Amino acid sequence: MAKLFRAAIMGPPGSGKGTISKRIAQSFGLQYLSSGHFLRESVATNTEAGVPVMTYIERSMLVPDHVMTRLMLPRLEQLRGFPRTLAQAQALNSLYQLDLVISLNIPYETLKERLSDRWIHPASGRVYNMGFNPPRVQGKDDVTGEPLIQHDDDKPEALMARLRHYKDVAKPVIDLYKSQGILHSFSGTETDRIWPYINSLLSTKMHIQPSNVFQTQTP
Q: Where does it mainly reside (predicted)?
């Protein structure tokens, strides 16, 4: 049986985790799903785990470790966006050993510009950027035609607090993976410039050449 390749991508809001994940899936035939997708799904289907999630989402608060872990651990083999904190990383380590962790380091000014232009379709989680990935019709989702929204915590006045909090919770997680020798950090202002280095790293780690033949899309 083929060995599963397990990786995590870390980065602050707006760092390009979703874009990089899609490119990895398309180039290497891997599957990815985001923790945000699971959070929205658990709320929409009113699952037992999703009931407490709504309280935190409505207040634009991070979902606590014990709630996230309970929701995510059963789906570990399909994850992106987890772990976010040291407690979540330790829970993950107790069950699975990651092969690789990618950390995206993007300057604050770049993040601020990206997030101020970011609009979201709430039901699906599809993300648009007015600068480089705008919807076909302004303010409308390409698939459903439903209105797009901008999260309050994506607005510039809330961004600094989010980034500060991310640094606080991410540092021990980064230190953990660095100590395990599986952390690889990439810095820059453009995803297109960072991607070739990530592509090369994965090609080496997986001992294959990238291919567009097999694609696994997010459900």
A: mitochondrion
pLDDT at 92 over 80: no
Q: List residues forming the annotated binding site for AMP.
A: 35, 40, 61-63, 81-84, 88, 162
Class of the domain covering 7-34+80-206: alpha beta
- Per-domain residue ranges for the chain? 7-34+80-206
Band (200; pLDDT cuts 50, 70, 90)? very high
Burial of 78 (0-12, 13-18, 19+ CB in 10 A): middle
Annotation: binding site: 14-19, 35, 40, 61-63, 81-84, 88, 118, 127-128, 162, 191
